[in-house]
Amino acid sequence: MASAASSAAAPFWRAAGMTYITYSNICASLVRSCLKEPHKTDALSREKVHFSVSKWAGGKPEKPSTIFSLSFSLSRDDFCC
Amino acid sequence: MQRILSRAASAGGRLRRCTAAFSTDAPAVATEDSAFVEAWRKVAPNIDPPKTPLAFMKPRPPTPSSIPTKLTVNFVLPYKSELANKEVDMVIVPATTGQMGVLPGHVATIAELKPGLLSVHEGSDVTKYFVSSGFAFIHANSVADIVAVEAVPLDNIDSSQVQKGLADFTQKLSSASSDLEKAEAQIGVDVHSALNAALTG
């Protein structure tokens, strides 16, 4: 592992603070954006992540405040990977 | 109930705990879980015992003593299985260390993949895919598991978009300020130049 051999050069994205998953997802979304139609629309529909966030109070979930539909884009620091 | 479940879990753990260096050296037997089945028959002798997850697992093919003639390839994507147990002559994977050719009898390797061309050679047929990134696991028994996030046949790639993307990201790379922006622009340049090379090469 890179931490064990401190002399091993980390890949440039690791050195910039990016995780492998972020790197892999960015690569995949770039490839998807270079496809021909109709494959492109199919691929973009695959990329969407749907989730809803709800706070819990008294052992029960409250109504979900927002229902998100996240599609991957660059320079989003506000999601966690 | 809990006792039966924990015994099933520990029987599964017993197989893994035999400290094998490679997964293919582990005992290659598909079993039903004998401890579970005995306990079940004591409690419910007239009902067939259900299968535990262990029984569903197919045994790993053992490492043959002589080099096999064909490589078995499993190529999977998150949303579908592209190739499942396909017998081929050779695959060329785009590892970070360069294009790596895998023949039957290849030494066990784990390779991280970079965006590039994956080609599957079977007789005189060559099937090419552009892989965005992933990993290739080659086992000692000539089974290759390739996992990728996106893999597209070359026909589905639009070259005008590739050129446009390459120009965009080259420009972003020169104008990028923070480390993160530089890294993203570099990734963009890498992916698009690999796409370009795959289309033209």
Automatic annotation (TrEMBL), chain A:
* Top-level taxon of the source organism: Eukaryota
**Gene Ontology process terms (BP):** proton motive force-driven mitochondrial ATP synthesis
Tell me which InterPro entries the record gives: ATP_synth_F1_esu_mt (IPR006721), ATP_synth_F1_esu_sf_mt (IPR036742)
UniProt entry keywords in alphabetical sequence: ATP synthesis, CF(1), Hydrogen ion transport, Ion transport, Membrane, Mitochondrion, Mitochondrion inner membrane, Transport
| Annotated Gene Ontology cellular component terms | mitochondrial inner membrane; proton-transporting ATP synthase complex
| Record Pfam families | ATP-synt_Eps
Q: Where in the cell is it found?
A: Mitochondrion inner membrane
Q: Which GO terms describe its molecular function?
A: proton-transporting ATP synthase activity, rotational mechanism
Q: Which PANTHER family match?
A: ATP SYNTHASE EPSILON CHAIN, MITOCHONDRIAL, ATP SYNTHASE SUBUNIT EPSILON, MITOCHONDRIAL
Protein purpose: Mitochondrial membrane ATP synthase (F(1)F(0) ATP synthase or Complex V) produces ATP from ADP in the presence of a proton gradient across the membrane which is generated by electron transport complexes of the respiratory chain. F-type ATPases consist of two structural domains, F(1) - containing the extramembraneous catalytic core, and F(0) - containing the membrane proton channel, linked together by a central stalk and a peripheral stalk. During catalysis, ATP synthesis in the catalytic domain of F(1) is coupled via a rotary mechanism of the central stalk subunits to proton translocation.
Q: How does it assemble?
A: F-type ATPases have 2 components, CF(1) - the catalytic core - and CF(0) - the membrane proton channel. CF(1) has five subunits: alpha(3), beta(3), gamma(1), delta(1), epsilon(1). CF(0) has three main subunits: a, b and c.
Q: Which family does it belong to?
A: Belongs to the eukaryotic ATPase epsilon family.
Instruction: Return the protein name.
Output: ATP synthase subunit epsilon, mitochondrial
Lineage here is:
Eukaryota, Viridiplantae, Streptophyta, Embryophyta, Tracheophyta
From TrEMBL, chain B:
Q: How does it assemble?
A: F-type ATPases have 2 components, CF(1) - the catalytic core - and CF(0) - the membrane proton channel. CF(1) has five subunits: alpha(3), beta(3), gamma(1), delta(1), epsilon(1). CF(0) has three main subunits: a, b and c.
The record's subcellular location field reads: Mitochondrion inner membrane
Which residue numbers delimit the ATP synthase F1 complex delta/epsilon subunit N-terminal domain? 71-143
**Entry protein name:** ATP synthase subunit delta', mitochondrial
Assigned protein family: Belongs to the ATPase epsilon chain family.
Q: What is its main location?
A: mitochondrion
Q: What does this protein do?
A: Mitochondrial membrane ATP synthase (F(1)F(0) ATP synthase or Complex V) produces ATP from ADP in the presence of a proton gradient across the membrane which is generated by electron transport complexes of the respiratory chain. F-type ATPases consist of two structural domains, F(1) - containing the extramembraneous catalytic core, and F(0) - containing the membrane proton channel, linked together by a central stalk and a peripheral stalk. During catalysis, ATP turnover in the catalytic domain of F(1) is coupled via a rotary mechanism of the central stalk subunits to proton translocation.
Q: Which UniProt keywords apply?
A: ATP synthesis, CF(1), Hydrogen ion transport, Ion transport, Membrane, Mitochondrion, Mitochondrion inner membrane, Transit peptide, Transport
Q: Which GO terms describe its molecular function?
A: proton-transporting ATP synthase activity, rotational mechanism
Q: Name one GO cellular component term.
A: proton-transporting ATP synthase complex
Read off the InterPro entries from this record.
Answer: ATP_synth_F1_dsu/esu, ATP_synth_F1_dsu/esu_N, ATPsynth_dsu/esu_N
Entry annotated with the keyword Ligase: no
